[in-house]
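Marked as duplicate of an earlier ticket. Keeping the data here for the record.
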Amino acid sequence: MFSLEHDSTTPLVAQIVGGFQQLIATQGLRPGGRLPSIRQFAQTQGVSVFTVVEAYDRLVALGLVHSKPNAGFFVRLRATAAAQPAAEVQVQFDAKWYLRQIFETRELDIKAGCGWLPQDWLFQEGVHRAFRQLAQEGAELGGYGSPYGHAGLRELLAELLAERQIKAKADAILLTQGSSQAMDLLARYFVKPGEAVLVDSPGYPNMLYILRYLGATLLPVPRTPEGYDLAALEALLAEHKPKVFFTQPRLHSPSNSTVPLNQLLRLLQLAHQHEFAIVENDIYADLDEQLNPSLASLDQLQRVAYLGSFSKTISPNLRVGYVAAAPKLLEDLATRKMVSGLTSSDLNERLVLRALTEGRWRKHLGKLRGRLAAAQLVVASRLSQLGFELHTQGTSGMYLWARHPDIPDAGLLSQEAARHSIMLGPGHLFYPEPRETGWLRFNVAFSEEVRLWSFVETEIARAGG
């Protein structure tokens, strides 16, 4: 193994890539050999996890190594890629990086770019009471759940969706292992390799990666502070004739914008005119103080498949999401769910049902919305004071999308932040196409730390000369 020179002018990432290139070229690492784990290498060499992640991804891009899920990185059997100088290697990080690596950064002290809420903002009390109640009653541990998910929770969801003006009976709802499984099932239903699909730009990283993985051609529909760029959307429809649009109208990640009613109605008109379906990702609906309409409430699940989740409000670890859709589509999704992973967890679904019905759920939601509204004001004010442009400013939701005129590449800023144990959300992770951008996503629940703003202020001063 090689050692890094921390005082060298050669970037650490380039040193790591060059070191492994040399080991592979000289058979110090033979084909099929396993590289040290990301955490192990970072700890041994005294560097951040982000630095090792970037270096390993560059080695993958060069064709020298490949990753195996839950196993690590291994030298390819035919590692014959051209030996480029490590410093010249260009890698475009995308939603694949976000999906695979973002959860390896939990040890970073400040998580300003993450996509979850602090533990003490979640419904801990309700979950703890639900655990105790189920334990006292003797929760069933044998067998599997229903293919469609726990009936009691689906019935309650039908009532909750009715409050959002969506008429869906319990048998029109499929429970899933979090919203990610819901997205995957819907993507596999609608998309075949090579087909063109409409997506938000910027958009939801997990969805973008799933679609890329399935071989879809992504057609970016720009999101503006006012909603969709409808002219761009209509041009894409005329040229490509896509059959589905994957979108997040409400409290959109990363911009936190919400599409207004008139644009939702126009989108449904276009869907009918051009005969395409819509997958509406509404996982932040419970955080919306204004209770804005959804596409599903206007369409009543004719062309719209509607997905949601309890990860942002109860607990991401319970992994309970859902899809509401037309019967024929839902039947197909249930079959795909069983083929890929059998049933979802009946135990987790019972826990969520208990948490929702134990009497304090709505009080928790009110408190959570209030905390987010207060954090929105504080973080927006701080960003404005430092000269950032805000894409959208409101009082609901988890995020702010911002850029600074002196920071053209948020990716470089994020790499430097990681060396200070700060996780940022660089904008290029959220775009369907590779690009350099100054946009950053800030999670307001994690962005009130003094050290975060001290770092950002220092970097702005350095960039501005």
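See parent ticket for discussion. The chain has a mean pLDDT of 87.
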